Amino acid sequence: MTDTFVAQSHILHRAFGQRPENVVSAEGIKLVLESGRTMYDATCGPSVSVLGHHQPKVTEAITRQLKQIAYVYSGARFTAEPNEELASMILGACPGGLSKAIFVNSGSEATDAAIKLATQYWHERGLPNKSHVIARKQSYHGNTIGALNVSGHTSRREIYRDWISENVSFVDPCYAFRLQKADESPNQYLQRLRDQLEAEIIRVGPGNISAFIAETVSGTTLGCLPPVPGYFKAVRELCDKYDILLILDEASYICTDHTIMCGMGKTGTMHAWEQEGIRGPDIQTIGKALGGGFVPLSGVLLHQKIFDALAAGSKGLLHGHTFQAHPIATAAAVAVQKIIKELDLLNNVAKMGKVLEEALEEMIRPLPFVADIRGRGLFWAVEFLADPESGAPFAENAKFCNQVVDAAFENGLNILGNLGVTGDVHVEHVIVAPPYIVSESEIRDI
Ligand code: PLP
């Protein structure tokens, strides 16, 4: 049934049966609704508003930039100061040879740009047949047609199958909790994943393959799922052995300094892959928290070797958008990065992450249907199974996580639920990812 407000609104809302709540203001971690209710935003939207909902210094930075120059077309002749500053902040101290950035407006655009960049790279090198992409089942890289093509989230692809390319194939994700066999050691599981990827590379033929794409820490579909130690080492080795580009999608959650959230409470590394003991990807996407939710902003980082190939060839990028590297967005993102450093927020992430982990273990672990609690820093998921004892999943239409999200909402708490109807594995989980400014008492309330 369609809600009357939704039917009359000129906005095409996503869920027709549900009247969206009008958020009139916000402070810190709390949203104020038109009805007068306040709610804890315990996931910063989908892991976006990591500084909370109001930051005077970001407002100032945006206003300053508006007065200076609001927009330049960064496609050809122009650039603007904050664009250059943000790229230097992200790449200046970056190990692994990532040396250039492209700024776009969403994670999906970043995925599209990454795939196109990889394709252009092989063309410039005189190897145009290298166009196939190997991706992973149960993955999510975005909602545009390009990004859906490399996403293993089958229910999101279903009705668009005529637009889906056969030039993409899928291997298993690294998901030990559900997919490691009872009689397999972690090393045997890792070896099986490695063998499967190698077999797929040989089946398609390395001379036809452009890239392997994966989320470093799975966010949307599998819920805050870090890889088994050694997984990305094996992936990197295979990519090197067969001359295939490695694209790591870190657009889901955190980026730049924020990767502390996937960092096992160590001091922050700039990128999640730095904790995987690899030299780095050839192409990386970043997004979501990059602009702290004050502006839409995502990006693609690329290795110097990709730039060198383009520079030696056509001397240009066959990709671009009207609003790429918008100076208002990059100015806001520079301010976000500075605030994280000034307030030493990564320390708070490590400290509050511990508090959140303990609270989840103490209060949530004993509840029925709770099968796994996993995460790092302030980025946590609770996965449900119909029977955690036997490992039996919910039926495909159970939508248990939606019930959890609805009940939380009724109680003044906004969390994210994910119903992963994704082919062979049915995943149900909720994410709790409060902002870096969260306090201990707010975590206890959540
Ligand atoms: N890549 C990953 C890993 C994501 O989790 C998402 C969104 O959740 C995207 C890409 C798409 O980002 P956007 O929704 O900004 O297009």
UniProtKB/TrEMBL annotation:
Q: Does the keyword Glycoprotein apply?
A: no
The name this protein goes by in its record: PLP-dependent transferase
Molecular function terms, GO-annotated? pyridoxal phosphate binding; transaminase activity
Provide the alphabetized UniProt keywords. Pyridoxal phosphate
InterPro entries in alphabetical order: Aminotrans_3 (IPR005814), PyrdxlP-dep_Trfase (IPR015424), PyrdxlP-dep_Trfase_major (IPR015421), PyrdxlP-dep_Trfase_small (IPR015422)
Under the heading SUPFAM superfamilies, the entry gives: PLP-dependent transferases
Q: Which PANTHER family match?
A: AMINOTRANSFERASE (PTHR43094), AMINOTRANSFERASE CLASS-III (PTHR43094:SF1)
GO-annotated cellular components: cytosol
